[in-house]
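Worked problem 6 (solution included).
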Amino acid sequence: MRKLVKDFLTRAGYQVLEAGDGEEAVDVFFGTKGIDLLVLDVMMPKMDGWEVVKEIRKVSKVPIIMLTAKDQEQDELQGFELGVDEYISKPFSPKILVARIEAILRRTNQLEDENIEAGGIEMDLGAHHVSVDGKSIELSYKEFELLQFFMQNEGRALTRENILNQVWNYDYFGDARTIDTHVKKLRSKLGKKGKYIHTIWGMGYKFEVE
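Solution. The predicted structure is:
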């Protein structure tokens, strides 16, 4: 499977580094500059995918896609709690994986020299930096995108489907649990400002400064 994924990505023009187990993956990541994205299997020898994510998230916000044969809800939620950006259950189409990687990297590289501010929350999109009342907060890649979408649509009621399409893009096949998990974490990290993200029962969410 690793060879198949590498072949598809190489054909798409990407430079791919491989690791045969979790420990090697951590060594490769910390020993290589400029890695733009990680594709990790959950079930790996020596150190599993969750452990690898924990180690990397201590120092990096690099986008991470998890591959797993499991499709149980708690596994997916655990991945998002640890800071995973996408979650793909096996078996999967390599073409879909390539499409998701392209979408993530496209959005990551579309840096805008723009600031958004509302109610004491300030986002520097170019620097990928967020501060609340002047104090920096750490957001994962997806939490940052979600907050950006909310703030750019301040006052608008947003359906879960709309949020999935815009933040996770067309190629995501998840459901509302994904959004709810990220909103919960985002509210927590925003502290008192988390109240600006209002739940619209049966529909979705609205960002509105009171």
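Discussion: The helical segments are 2-11, 22-30, 49-57, 73-82, 94-109, 141-152, 160-168, 176-190.
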